[in-house]
Amino acid sequence: MSEPTAVQLKDEGNDFFRKQDYVGALAKYTEAIALDDKNAVLYANRAACHHGLNRCLDAVDDAKMATQIDPGYAKGWSRLAASRDALAEWERSAEAWQKALDALPKTNLSRAEQRQKDQYSAGLDAAKTRDKTAESPSVSRFKAEDANLPWKIATEMLPELRKAGPEKYSSSAWVISYAYEEFTKGVAFMNEFKSIPHPQAPGGFAYGGNTMGLTYLTNGLMRDERAFHLDGPDWITKYNNQVKFEATARQAWHSDGVENIKQLAQKRLKEKGWSDVRPALSVTVRAWIMRGMLDGHLRNKPDTGVQFLKRAVDLLEWGRNVWKNVHKDDRGAIFQDTFLRGVRSLHLKMFMNAYSADPGLNSKFPLEHLKEEAEDLLKEIDIMKASNNLSKEELDPGMVSSFCIYPAAVAYTMIGFYHAQTARHSDDVLACISFANGASAYLQAAGTYPEDDEFHAFYLSCAMDCMRNAGLPIRGFNLAAVTLRAAVPKMMKIWTVSALQQGGRDEKIQANLRSADEIMKLVAEGKLTLEDPVPL
Q1: Quick check: 372 and 344 in contact, CB under 8 A?
Q2: Which residues are paired to 197 by β-bridges?
Q3: For residue 210, what is the enclosing H or E element?
Q4: Whole-prediction pTM value?
Q5: How far apart are CA 199 and CA 473, in angstroms?
Q6: CB-based contact 451:487 (threshold 8 Å)
Q7: Rounded to 5 degrees, what angle do the CA atoms 344, 209, 94 make?
Q8: Bridge partner residues of 195 (DSSP)
């Protein structure tokens, strides 16, 4: 039986698309593109599939490919960007808005095109304002000279922790200190970047720097994203210079969709080998991670952050499957178990933030998806534990915590969040059950974090909120309060200041402790029993 042609695959994809089976259609169009990668229709059709799946980044990238092959698709690309704000989702930068403006006709604009021009011009102005805000010192929540910064305190604790024997794993000091160390190495490489006037160089400048900046920045964020901070008003400018330098030096992919990169990477691998493809893939994935974190946190666009981090997860999972028999030194660190767990953890947290910004039953970020991803991560961690699949590099306390213990805690947190949010859209009986499940998951999350991590105390407090809403017995509520009260001094030893603390962490904890005191007073007076439900 003969292999299907690109036309036949396109027709099969069209059949799936008409049935609104966008996943099936996307697979067929991708197979067709592998046979005919100069066919603009195939890219345009696949862009429509991405559009239907709310994958705005990939939709725009495929639409751009269609436009490059056939400029007649330029208007279609602009309409796609405008109709679903795909361009804004793809890249909320001044450069992207300028490209959108450049795609429009320069004269004789129709009414629709004039409206698009007005929209893109407004977006360009807003992006420039955001960039200035991102580069202002006020974005950094902490002053570098503050002696109470968690990473400074944690680093001072390490000598004693090293003497603690088996107990050395049970401190968040390892996590934040190593995260800060790696992140600041990346910043140091950013600061080394130089542009030197050179008349014979492209653009009149020659560039010099270290290509390990992105590696250390992303390693630091995956160890603990709380290590992220801006140490100067020009941080974003320096970062942009670094990522452009590395992308150019490694010939990374920066404007191609995931499906295109899969094909291009395999083709390039055959032509140039792993020594060329490995660093290109690393820079590509790490740049997505950084972009996702910057958009999600600095620009307050967690919806865009989710898409960039999801891209990274998808490409990593694909590469691990396609190159599963390739030695780890050839395919690179980004395909290691620990790296993928780190990215998945970041993605889960960003997904939770995206849901919080767009909550409800019709959210573009379904709670069921969050729960499924969290449960899948827990299964993967259980398999790792059962097989004792830890490499020698993973045996230092910081590595074990950051890439084995903390991802499990994140997964439990997401499940707790899922149940707590589901309860808000359920009737009384189901809401009580959901809040009870939320309390259980939050207790598991709290118990997984070290006792001196602020998340241990915070999620104990979240569990107490769920217990109250579920009407669970006072006995369990009081036990959580006793544990929380003991945890607060340990937390404050390291986490006196943090983003969570500035977001009301301490007020929430103290409110629950006061509530527990008042309830236990009523128990002591005989007005309540330990088996009574926690009063609202």
Answers
A1: no
A2: 205
A3: none
A4: 0.81
A5: 77
A6: yes
A7: 65
A8: 207
Q: What are phi and psi of 533, to 5 degrees?
A: -70, 150
Q: How many CB atoms lie within 10 A of CB 353?
A: 19
Smallest Cα–Cα separation from 353: which of 442, 414, 285, 311? 414
Q: How far apart are CA 315 and CA 342, in angstroms?
A: 14
pLDDT per residue as tens, the chain (536 positions):
578 888 888 888 888 888 788 888 888 888 888 778 788 788 888 888 877 776 767 777 777 777 778 776 665 555 555 444 434 433 445 555 666 667 677 777 776 567 667 666 766 665 555 444 444 333 345 555 566 899 999 999 999 888 876 666 689 999 999 999 999 999 999 999 877 665 655 555 556 788 999 999 999 999 999 999 988 889 999 999 999 999 999 999 977 788 889 999 999 999 999 999 999 999 999 999 999 999 999 889 999 999 999 999 999 999 999 999 999 999 999 999 999 999 999 999 999 999 999 999 999 999 999 999 999 999 999 988 887 655 544 467 788 899 999 999 999 999 999 999 999 999 989 999 999 999 999 999 999 999 999 999 999 999 999 999 999 999 999 999 999 999 999 999 999 999 999 999 999 999 999 999 999 999 999 999 999 999 98
DSSP H or E run through 194: strand 194-197
Q: What distance in Å separates the CA atoms of residue 154 and residue 149, rounded to the nearest whole number?
A: 9
Place of tokens 């309390």: 439
- Give the bridge partners for 533, in sequence order: 473
**Identity of the residue numbered 61:** D
Host H or E run for residue 205: strand 205-208
For the chain, the distance separating the N- and C-terminal CA atoms, rounded to the nearest angstrom, is 69
Neighbouring C-alpha atoms within 13 Å toward the C-beta of 216: 18
> Which residues, listed in sequence order, are joined to residue 194 by a DSSP beta bridge?
208
